[in-house]
Amino acid sequence: MTPDAIKVACSNCNLRELCMPVGFDLADLARLDEVVATRRKIKQGQTLFNSGEVFTSLYAIRTGFFKTSVSTEDGREQVTGFQMAGEIMGLDGIVNDHHSCNAIALEDAEVCVMPFSNIEDLSREFPVLQRHVHKIMSREIVRENSVMLLLGNMRAEERLAAFLLNLVQRLHARGFSKSEFVLRMTREEIGSYLGMKLETVSRTFSKFSEEGVIEVKQRYVRILDPDALQKIFNPQPCI
Amino acid sequence: MTPDAIKVACSNCNLRELCMPVGFDLADLARLDEVVATRRKIKQGQTLFNSGEVFTSLYAIRTGFFKTSVSTEDGREQVTGFQMAGEIMGLDGIVNDHHSCNAIALEDAEVCVMPFSNIEDLSREFPVLQRHVHKIMSREIVRENSVMLLLGNMRAEERLAAFLLNLVQRLHARGFSKSEFVLRMTREEIGSYLGMKLETVSRTFSKFSEEGVIEVKQRYVRILDPDALQKIFNPQPCI
DNA sequence: CGTTGACTTGAACAAGATCAACCATTGTGG
DNA sequence: CCACAATGGTTGATCTTGTTCAAGTCAACG
User: Fold this and answer.
1) Domain of life here (chains A, B) (predicted)?
2) Which nucleotide lies nearest residue B209, CA to C1'?
């Protein structure tokens, strides 16, 4: 056990409403504590796991912000997602007992380590946990479907609008502002996620800014006209 | 129950090696039969399920070929996958109890209908089934990760090469030829999956053909130089 | 045998990539 | 504390890839 690992409990975690315990009553919550073995701190820039490593656990983010990515053999990186508090990482490792993507902390972070064997054992006992695990995996499949739609069908402006709206919506669900936030990732990482180059990301930010839809200063973003953003992302069919 | 629904068994299905029963011993196999409620035939062009419909079951393909797709509000379609015998559809529906994509038969097909409540009940009893369900979902997440890489980072030729190699590899696992096959989908559907226009798909086919890498005649494809395809898909880093 | 849907091919065009220069912010060592 | 390097971000000019539009081919089928 690493020195920064400590024993912890879901039952008094303030992420109850977003994380694994969703839909558990108090009695179940006590048992759920068994799935979390330890916590682990990851410094900004450090990896939680890398492609190729043996899979043992899922990870629930307590604090901090991550990106996950896959790479081609010739070194091109595709960011596959950005994860924040209450979200689960590591699902990619189940199928082959090895991770197939990298998880890197974009700010100092702490995760709950949940050995997958604990999850499997306990979810045989608790249908509510079983159902929750299934939903988490299904949610990830649905999310990736929508990223495929974004990458396959949308233009640069639509992609960035969709990205900003998704981000602010998730932040808002965690008690942050509906309109302003600080990006945790670089233009290059945004571009990698959205299938565009960092220059195009920067230009699109500038364009939105000129149009008065957002205010940008480096990593700080304020959404001035959410409806306009929504309209860019989700244009009406031309009748 | 629809008239074309009949009672069936996994234990004597010839897809045992590819479908749900992977890794089950004979005793377990008998119980596994309980998860399949019925079979259902779907004619070419018919939908198995549509986005928005209530989710009740997963579907294992016995025969035939499907595409799954999602759409934007203004009617742009993104094909999210092509599925063949032994593959499982419907995982998208678990998270919200409603499907979020469409599944359409590209040729006359038959599926095993597996009510998800049966799967959940039985997988609490059989760790091997529980594990298998988790792996199926994880495999889908990993597949979608690699499609994101393809859509976000690859050029047209790389995309089509990757697509053809993936298709032939899956067909080969089902006993078909390593080198020739008949496409079940149109150029437009391939293009939608790969994030390119049907004209670009057609041109890229022609280019591969001129280079002697493949032979194409309409939907018939023969791979003449698999190594060349592999190299297009997976170029070496320039040192 | 004509109609239809799928496919191919060419020419013009545009979105985004690439290349390049420059600016802003942060952190570090003298 | 300041100089300056390093990293990240912006902006302009040019180029490329793939899109769009258009015309024509092919195969299947009623």
Assistant:
1) Bacteria
2) C8
